[in-house]
Design a protein that fits this description.
Layout lengths: L4 H8 L4 E7 L2 E7 L5 H8 L18 E4 L2 E4 L12 E3 L1 H4 L9 H8 L9 H14 L5 H7 L11 H16 L10
Helix pairs in contact: 4-7
Bound molecules: FE2/S2 (inorganic) cluster (2 copies).
One FE2/S2 (inorganic) cluster (FES) binds next to loops.
Keywords: 2Fe-2S, Iron, Iron-sulfur, Metal-binding, Oxidoreductase
Protein name: Aerobic-type carbon monoxide dehydrogenase, small subunit CoxS/CutS-like protein
GO molecular function: 2 iron, 2 sulfur cluster binding; metal ion binding; oxidoreductase activity
Length: about 180
Amino acid sequence: MSIDKNKADQVDERPTREVSVTVNGKEITAEIEPRIKLSDFLRYHANLNGVRVGCEHGACGACTVSVNGDLIKSCLMYAVQTDGDEILTVEGLSESEDGSLHPVQEAFHESHALQCGFCTSGFVMSTYDLLTDESNPSREQTKKHLSSNICRCTGYQNIYEAVDRAAEKVSDDESITLEENN
Ligand code: FES
Ligand code: FES
């Protein structure tokens, strides 16, 4: 099979744009094709594999991250749209020097709120966002806020219990400030 050189050259000449973002407090600049989704940019350019890619059309919530403090499904944004923005991923929650987990992550661990774990980083980010706005959410508030995330394994009960446990941890420890990670 012969290769059409003109077509090969066209592929090499795809337009790119520079994008510069702050991810988990670190600046990342890259030259990328405008078609690259934020989820793929975070996974393959920033090596942040906690950003999961499940459905790729906004249904499962596995790719949830925070952009400038807003909860975003990163498969629905192009990376170039976030130029100049501040992004927080699940990795950014636990950047303490001793490697300890964030209280929301601890709560998921202690409540056995995961099985395969594919959905977990999305749920942790959504829970973090919920507790940032509402420190003591009712079960109804929790269900509503997490309704944009899908778990196929757990049946949700332990996830809801993890949210309650995370809320207790945050309210019991005045040194924890959720906004400090934004
Ligand atoms: S991968 Fe983004 S919502 Fe499912
Ligand atoms: S733990 Fe498997 S999808 Fe949620």
